[in-house]
Design a protein that fits this description.
494 residues, alpha/beta, FAD/NAD(P)-binding domain, 2 domains, nine-stranded mixed β-sheet, five-stranded parallel β-sheet, 25 strands, 22% strand
Amino acid sequence: MTTTSHSEARNEADIATVDVLIVGAGLSGIGAAHHLQSKLPGKTYAILESRGAIGGTWDLFRYPGIRSDSDMYTLGYNFRPWTGDKSIADGASIREYIEDTAREGGIDSHIKFHHKVVAAEWSTAEAKWTVTALRSDTGATVQLRASFLMCCSGYYDYDKGFTPEFAGIENYRGTVVHPQQWPEDLDYVGKKVVVIGSGATAITLAPNLAREASHVTLLQRSPSYIMSLPSKDPIALALRKLLPSRAAYSVTRVKNAVIAIGMYVLCQRYPKFMKKRIRKLQEGWLPAGYDLDTHFTPKYNPWDQRLCLVPDNDLFRSIRRDEVELVTDHIDHFTETGIALKSGKQLDADVVVTATGLNLVAFGHVNLKVDGREVELTDTMSYKGMMLTGIPNFAFVVGYTNASWTLKADLVCDYVVRLLEHMDENGFREVRLQRDASVGEEPFLDFAAGYVLRSVDSFPKQGSVAPWRLRMNYFRDLPALRFGKLVDENMSLR
């Protein structure tokens, strides 16, 4: 692909220039736009979205039963109450919520769809980014310029999910599908389905496919911690009747954030107690005598990897009804009619769903340059979990792994807006982070999930101490990011 050079771009009169360029029109990107235009209405901005619709992850994933695995009172925006009855909402409802937020705020008119950002170069002399995007609908190359670049594309690779190499899969005569590329016309009615995986996607798919499939087998190599949560929050619904909508939403948001972070802290500090507690609950949800040791007891402690939630016991109810069979084993090879396991067991299948995980990518494969020099992300360190050393006028959103993504996104957006306001008031054109050489390096995401371990070496580093540490605790970030010191000795403004 041929792209226009930075020097050529400066001479093109038709290149649009904005104050802030946001990458991604998903949950984070729409939220960032709202914070920006409501608090700094004089700023111009645009949103570049690689897909043809608003929603990000919630537009990409269309498999049966797709839903949030966080409650909507914390996954929703702090500025727009979630008014749905269900706390654990389906993907279509979440997508509609994001779309409505964009439409009601006029944000949708700032979105350029089918614009996949492939490169961004910062010029110190001009204090501007030149951003190159590829039009996926026409194949044309487009450039825009901006004073500040904000990446809200998350860390999933939207091009493809992760699928291991399975021996003999070329011999299988059935249908193989990854949830990230779920075909609208996939026919599984009355058929035998095997879902490979043990994470949130697999445990969501199994009970939903079982409604129409003749039989569903959930095949896992090793178990995950799985708990049930009511799809409706009775306390939230009661508060709506007693308080004004915004007040009820705020109280529920704090309550659920406390519960989520509290659960995480309990699991980290008292793993043996929490193991016993989770097991006790599962005994009540599953048939008497069910083999929990094999199918529901991981080798790791709770919250060393993400704890999976199911709404209203749907997976456990499907197991009790013999609609879903849980098999814990290793795949030896595929056969013409299904999967042969290392134990010698054969699983027949008309459809195999490889819910085997996601690929992570830092900032959507965007090639970043500063003054002509390519940025090596692994040489950078994150600052307050939202900016990087050596990359001026750049911020990103990465949410919590142990709580709702939007809790962190709202804090980041609020901080960035305050920083931009401070720069305007003092006549600064550039903000740059200077790395503290005495701070130790740690992986960007300190999380043992397979999808993280496969990709974390290509990400920036985090530091061993604040403000270089990527905290996973909303109640520690809240005072530091919303009310704490805006500028410190690590920040250079000019």
